[in-house]
Amino acid sequence: MSTFLIIGASGTVGAPLARQLQAAGHSVRRATSRAPQAADQVQLDLQTQAGTATALAGVDAAFVMAPPGHVRQDLLIKPFVDAARAAGVSKVVLMSAMGANAFETAPLRQAELHLEHSGLAWNVIRPNWFMQNFNTFWLHGIQTQGKILLPTGQAKGSFIDARDIAAVAEVLLKTSTFDNQAFDLTGAEALDHAQVAAVLSRVTGRSIAYEEITPEALRPGLLQAGLPADYADFLLMILAAFKDGHAERTTDAVQRIAGRAPGTLEQYARDYRAAWV
Ligand SMILES: NC(=O)c1ccc[n+]([C@@H]2O[C@H](COP(=O)([O-])OP(=O)(O)OC[C@H]3O[C@@H](n4cnc5c(N)ncnc54)[C@H](OP(=O)(O)O)[C@@H]3O)[C@@H](O)[C@H]2O)c1
């Protein structure tokens, strides 16, 4: 039995990851920036690093990601990596994002490089856009207007089910087979947003359509949802990269690491149907 620290343990990827590790009999510390409510939770704030050293003491391997809302992801991740090394942790798995390595100077890439050069065993996983965005970030337009409203044109994305990311992270934390490598994680096929809308319509029985909007039209909604202005602009930048075709590529990393084919959008939609009906 090993001890794992999971950052973002209440999040879309971290929650299934923590559950799976616990189900496999491991000791899991579920990090939260809020006051802990359960015995397996530890308080840790990546912004201030408060609680980091305590949370890492006695940990074998840690999973870390930058919480959404921060454009200087390096400022959150680098001190955590340093603290992990100081605490004698063997390995850190960093969830980054597909495309993060397009520019060496990008904050998320700087975080990746810091881990890669830390002397720790490491993995970087770079998932493509999550399927779960349709039941979170993009839910409002679907609920209120029956529309996926995005500035992504007819470009396709190989959306990934967050549960597959968790399955990959679990293997990387528990084994050393894939140590010291970075992986782009995608679903098995690329779909455009009209095709996504068609799947959601079929599964829910509701009429859901894709409508392209301008980045300028999306921005106020992002701000209203509480995103800081710089993070809203960051999201618009990566949505522009989606429109330019950079989210289309597929990889076999989920199959290779988790040992199963990635979940389909159809299956995701069936599992999350209650979100849209
Ligand atoms: N959505 C996508 O399409 C996509 C694609 C590629 C990569 N990503 C990456 O995925 C990550 C988001 O993962 P997710 O969707 O699983 O997360 P999420 O569901 O948005 O949850 C965020 C998590 O961060 C924790 N958190 C918030 N503030 C914190 C702080 N100051 N210190 C420590 N923890 C804090 C929250 O826990 P508490 O509230 O309990 O503190 C929560 O568990 C981001 O780094 C993003 O770049 C997302």
Query: What is the number of E strands?
Result: 11
Gyration radius, rounded: 18 Å
Bound molecules: NADP nicotinamide-adenine-dinucleotide phosphate
Q: Write down the overall geometry.
A: globular
Structural category is: alpha/beta
Biggest sheet features = 7 strands, parallel
User: Mean pLDDT, rounded to whole units?
Assistant: 98
Write the layout of secondary structure elements.
Blueprint (H helix, E strand, L loop, with lengths): L2 E4 L7 H10 L3 E6 L8 E3 L8 H5 L4 E5 L7 H14 L4 E5 L11 H10 L4 E7 L11 H7 L1 E4 L5 E2 L4 H13 L6 E5 L5 E2 H12 L4 E4 L2 H10 L4 H15 L9 H6 L6 H7 L6
Description of the molecule:
By secondary structure, the protein is of the alpha/beta class. It has a domain at 3-128 and 160-185 and 250-262: Rossmann fold, CATH 3.40.50.720. The protein is built from eleven helices and eleven strands. Helix 1 (14-23) links the parallel strand 1 (3-6) and strand 2 (27-32). Helix 1 packs across helix 6 (162-174). The radius of gyration is 18 Å and the shape is globular. It starts with a strand and ends in a 6-residue tail after the last helix. The relative contact order is 0.13. NADP nicotinamide-adenine-dinucleotide phosphate binds next to loops. NADP nicotinamide-adenine-dinucleotide phosphate (NAP) is lined by residues 7-14, 32-34, 44-47, 65-68, 95, 97, 127, 129-130, 133.
